[in-house]
Task: structure prediction
Amino acid sequence: MKALVYKGPGDKAVEDRPVPDVKDRGEAIVKISKTTICGTDLHILKGDVPTCSPGRVLGHEGTGVVEKVGAGVATFRAGDHVLISCISACGRCEYCRRGMYSHCTTGGWILGNEIDGTQAEYVRIPHADTSLYRIPEEVDEEALVMLSDILPTGFECGVLNGKVVPGSTIAIVGAGPIGLAALLTAQFYAPAEIIMIDLDDNRLETARRFGATKTINAVGDKAAEAVMKLTGGRGVDTAIEAVGVPASFLTCEDIIAPGGTIANVGVHGIKVDLHLERLWSQNITITTRLVDTVTTPMLLKTVAAHKIDPTKLITHRFKLDRILDAYDTFSRAAETRALKVIIEA
Ligand SMILES: NC(=O)c1ccc[n+]([C@@H]2O[C@H](COP(=O)([O-])OP(=O)(O)OC[C@H]3O[C@@H](n4cnc5c(N)ncnc54)[C@H](O)[C@@H]3O)[C@@H](O)[C@H]2O)c1
Ligand SMILES: [Zn+2]
Ligand SMILES: [Zn+2]
Result:
């Protein structure tokens, strides 16, 4: 089969690989129909993710059809149409029992990281019963690719952790796929104001179409000032950090209102200053989270019922044999206006 392989920092290639087989009772082999590329794959290619070794097939998102299951798989069989979660979960360990699938002792985010991933014709899925979701007949498959990672991430790490409530004022720093997923799912809770902040005017324009009430270009470190002006000097009840650099987290610290919540979503590679000399008296909460994908069944129902339309995030489509072009387009997002690219196997 064809697969996109990480060859070490700055290097990747399409290679021929043997089709994987089940090694454990709980595993399934899925024939990929559609997959995509995540910002995190670009982090891996930069060499930022030490757990991912050269030789690894990348990808942790996608949909497909079950090809084969191990003897211990109870809920799926060959021919089932499934959504693959970016998080593999045993469902039995202490963390899984607490709903913290991301910290599963024999799973978590391993797909396309510690084990071969979905940017291939076939993938081996561990703990298949609790890491795959059945796809309802009538739901658009491309919409569901957005449910493997970005929708649960924006919703769980941003909206739920950020305690968005009706009538509240929220700011989302970063209008990439994750920030936009937070924007779409925040609207379940009818916040009064959603201020979207980015450096890219195209993405801000998209955010306005997706329901942002105000947008701010963060160029020249003036974002915080602009937010304070828009909120009459009060700041925001929820600040969602969806970039992963010190500047964007500092913006959140500068705009959080008394009693507010800063919900960090971004993956940080270097340390960030925490200004407790200002914030100690402000009754704020700071949260962090690796997406657990516990809300995937709920989000699936909202997509099936057309309460949200994640296909709005899809900007480009490629066949698997052109995945290098897909990477090129995705990594030059500012020029190509790429958000999510669909790759068809
Ligand atoms: N916590 C989790 O479980 C989890 C899961 C998936 C992704 N992530 C992380 O979420 C983050 C966002 O992912 P993405 O795919 O949307 O990334 P992305 O790179 O596509 O988007 C980031 C956006 O931030 C903007 N930006 C850069 N600096 C800024 C600044 N100072 N102020 C405002 N905006 C700024 C960029 O223009 C870009 O549009 C990444 O760090 C990613 O690794 C976290
Ligand atoms: Zn991802
Ligand atoms: Zn577990």
About this structure: The chain has a mean pLDDT of 97. The domain at 2-149+292-344 is CATH 3.90.180.10 (Quinone Oxidoreductase; Chain A, domain 1). The chain has two domains: 2-149+292-344, 152-287. The CA atoms of residues 154 and 181 lie 5 Å apart.
